[in-house]
Amino acid sequence: MPVLTRLIPSPVVVDIRAGALDDLAGVLADERISRSGRLAVAVSGGSGARLRERLAGSMPGATWFEVGGGTLDDAVRLAAEMRAGRFEAVVGLGGGKIIDCAKFAAARVGLPLVAVPTNLAHDGLCSPVATLDNDAGRGSYGVPNPIAVVIDLDVIAQAPAKFVRAGIGDAVSNISAIADWELANRVKGEKIDGLAAAIARQAGEAVLRHPGGIGDTGFLQVLAEALVLSGIAMSVSGDSRPSSGACHEINHAFDLLFPTRAAAHGEQCGLGAAFAMYLRGAHEESAHMARVLRRHGLPVLAQEIGFTVEEFVRAVEYAPETRPGRYTILEHLALTPEQIKDTYADYVKAIGS
Ligand SMILES: [Zn+2]
User: Fold this and answer.
1) DSSP code of residue 239
2) How confident is the model over 259-293, as pLDDT tens digits?
3) What pLDDT, in 10s, does the model give residues 294-339?
């Protein structure tokens, strides 16, 4: 008999709403996650202490681990510490660095991960990838998808605005990433996973077209759901293709060329996406994207994240090197530095100031 449907790797619990943290203990007690309550909870030293104070009483069987930062060493150390206990699940409670460390450590010790992000800076909160700093700069490590995702919109509303805004850039960049995937399909015959593309595109479009802003819960709900769906799209396709194209290559280039000056991932991806849309000749879409990013206070020009035009040109030129084998509008056009500079000048004119 032919296979009629496929199973989608996805979390067993997705709880996104105001006040969700109050019921975290209940989610964790789900027997599919933890029967005995023996949980390893990874938190940051700073804001993690407050969360620990708030939640420790409702999670008596939990052991709390303070995570230093977002490096591969931090993640390996965390895994080694966790190995000593007999835990049933790992809970990553905090910002992107904590979630990434917890993801990596959970994969290493063979335990499921519950992601409890406290900001919405990027779509890594529910993706099968952990991004960690290593000796060579920054690396992406394949890990299983989280078993549960709990996002408390009251907690998100208290996060620094910068870390919530950045997620808008990452979500919206899906639209450019999908256009790159379609280009690779047309030119190179690369297979598109239609379901993964649909999920990622709808997530990006919902954020792009939502009239609200980070000050209202309705918008935060859509943004959080979009970032979770982006992660699931990546699980469906088995790689980062649905959410990562030229936009992300430009972002990686900034990270690698200017490691000490790089801006937030989502800020760089949003700028990269608006420019990539312009490069592919989608001028109206590019201008619309730039308008929306601006409305949310996100950068759309190199100078707005502290880079000169020359540095931006260098990043765009270098970008294809960051993802060998990924075909995007950058590889397709293979522009010279002169051409990148000219096109950027046109883009700046087109989006207006
Ligand atoms: Zn991203």
Assistant:
1) S
2) 899 899 999 999 999 999 999 999 999 999 999 99
3) 999 999 999 999 999 999 999 999 999 999 999 999 999 999 999 9
Residue type, 256: L
User: In terms of pTM, does the model score above 0.85?
Assistant: yes
For 196, other C-beta atoms within 10 Å of its C-beta total: 24
* Whole-number average pLDDT of the chain: 94
50: number of Cβ within 10 Å = 10
| Residue 45 backbone dihedrals phi, psi, to 5 degrees | -70, -35
Q: What is the DSSP letter of 247?
A: H
What are 149's strand-pairing partners?
14, 115
User: How far is it, in rounded angstroms, from Cα 287 to Cα 140?
Assistant: 31
CA of 21 from ligand 1 middle (Å) equals 25
Distance from the CA of 152 to the center of ligand 1, in angstroms? 21
To which H or E segment does residue 343 belong? helix 337-351
- Beta strands, E only, the chain: 13-17, 39-44, 62-67, 89-94, 113-117, 129-134, 137-142, 148-152
Q: What is the distance in A from the centroid of ligand 1 to the CA of 326? A: 15
Neighbours of 258 (CB within 10 A): 16
- CA distance from start to end of the chain: 60
CA of 63 to the centre of ligand 1 (A): 31
